[in-house]
Design the sequence.
């Protein structure tokens, strides 16, 4: 069985697609594209598809990952083209590589996010970020299936900056100031999401965006001591090059 790891994006209106809806759409795309997907054993066989750290509904992403098992070998580049053509615009397959060893989930322990705050001046956002980062702990509440839970929004945050308007192009949207937050959050249990960090900014400095923010996940991977994120597919690409036949 061949294992393929894919990176895909959720863009535009498709950011409102839930993880369950995407999973259904992806399984239909597999059938339409004629992908030789492998199935689990037992009374109710399921396609061998596993997902890693799906983004919340309503959030755009350039870095979602999944792995599929195939019963026949395929060319990853052809697989990208076939699946991308079978999915709706805005659900875009960006890359496929043959899986090396280990688990895809074990290569992801943090995410990088871009948060646009229309109507919020950059100076206000910077003051809120300073207050948030200065706090030892920022408790926030979130409604979960188990009821309301309190979590610390501060400790998982590895990096958070508010970009000065002069450093952003464009710095305004339709003439309205728009602060930009660059955020890196470590994976913890329970997970702390961008909306939890925004709740923390409200708790720490009363920052209240007048309109809903626009959130995009830019990257996922292993967070290094230097603060960089290591692409989870990098090791698979290296193995593919090493294993390529000589010309």
Sequence:
């Amino acid at each position: 069985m061949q294992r393929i790891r894919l990176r895909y994006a959720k863009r535009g209106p498709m950011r409102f697609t839930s993880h369950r809806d995407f999973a259904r759409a992806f399984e239909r795309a597999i059938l339409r594209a004629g992908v030789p997907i492998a199935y689990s054993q037992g009374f109710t066989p399921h396609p061998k598809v596993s997902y890693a750290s799906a983004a919340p509904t309503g959030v755009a992403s350039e870095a979602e990952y999944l792995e599929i098992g195939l019963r026949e070998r395929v060319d990853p580049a052809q697989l990208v083209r076939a699946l991308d053509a079978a999915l709706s615009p805005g659900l875009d397959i960006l890359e496929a590589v043959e899986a090396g060893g280990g688990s895809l989930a074990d290569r992801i322990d943090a995410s990088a996010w871009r948060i646009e705050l229309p109507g919020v001046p950059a100076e206000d956002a910077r003051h809120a970020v300073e207050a948030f980062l200065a706090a030892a702990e920022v408790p926030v509440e979130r409604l979960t299936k188990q009821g309301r839970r309190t979590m610390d929004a501060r400790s998982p945050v590895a990096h958070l900056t508010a970009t000065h308007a002069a450093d952003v192009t464009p710095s305004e949207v339709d003439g309205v100031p728009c602060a930009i937050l660059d955020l890196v959050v470590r994976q913890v249990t329970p997970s702390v999401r961008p909306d939890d960090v925004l709740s923390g900014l409200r708790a720490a400095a009363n920052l209240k965006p007048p309109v809903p923010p626009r959130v995009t996940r830019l990257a996922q991977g292993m967070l290094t001591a230097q603060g960089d994120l290591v692409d989870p597919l990098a090791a698979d690409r290296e193995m593919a090059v090493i294993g390529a036949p000589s010309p």
Q: What stands out?
A: The first strand starts at residue 2 and ends at 10. Residues 243-247 have pLDDT under 50 and may be disordered. The CA atoms of residues 222 and 228 lie 8 Å apart.
